[in-house]
Design a protein that fits this description.
Elements: E1 7-11, E2 17-19, H1 22-30, E3 35-40, E4 47-50, H2 52-62, H3 70-80, E5 83-86, E6 92-94, H4 97-103, E7 108-113, E8 118-121, H5 123-139, E9 143-147, E10 151-155
Helix pairs in contact: 2-3
């Protein structure tokens, strides 16, 4: 399993290339890949980045959906808009111009690790997203505890696990 953690801000050079954070490159190389798949996130103003195995599993899942379902349409949309990007000798990639333009990237990008995947954001959009996420956490009447063996578990404000 690949594991992408943390957040990095990198500049886009004059030729439109951006250096992928070394820890992310190491994970992809550990998975024996010098490329990854990017596609516009259908719900957020960012680019999702997945390894080839994950997008392959996602493509296979599409076959299990009714062709008239929203799930089938979403998976199809993601696949139709996906592109492969490959590292150059210095660990840089060229992100597709249309994706960069759609999310408002100028001269810097944020790489945000989300476990098995990562996202690419404009710094302004990422700041707005994290502020909104923090507000949701701060105003939630319930606290979420994370257990590595069971995943997210909701708990009451007293800290006792409900369930």
């Amino acid at each position: 399993m690949l594991l992408f953690l943390s957040t990095y801000i990198n500049k886009i050079d004059k030729k439109g290339r951006v250096s992928v954070p070394a820890p992310f490159r190491s994970e992809l190389e550990r998975g024996q890949s010098n490329s990854f798949i990017v596609f516009p996130n259908p719900e957020q103003s960012c680019i999702d980045a997945w390894d080839r195995d994950r997008i392959g599993r996602y493509a296979r899942d599409r076959d299990g959906f009714d062709p008239d379902s929203p799930e089938y349409a979403t998976v199809s949309h993601v696949l139709l808009n996906s592109r492969s990007v490959t590292f150059d000798g210095e660990g840089r990639v060229s992100l597709p111009d249309d994706m960069i333009d759609n999310i408002g990237i100028d001269d810097e990008v944020v790489f945000a690790g989300l476990g098995e995947t990562f996202q690419i954001w404009s710094p302004a959009q990422f700041e707005a997203y994290t502020a909104q996420s923090q507000q949701t956490i701060d105003t939630s009447p319930r606290r979420i505890r994370i257990s590595p063996s069971t995943g997210p578990a909701s708990s009451g404000t007293d800290g006792d696990r409900n369930g």
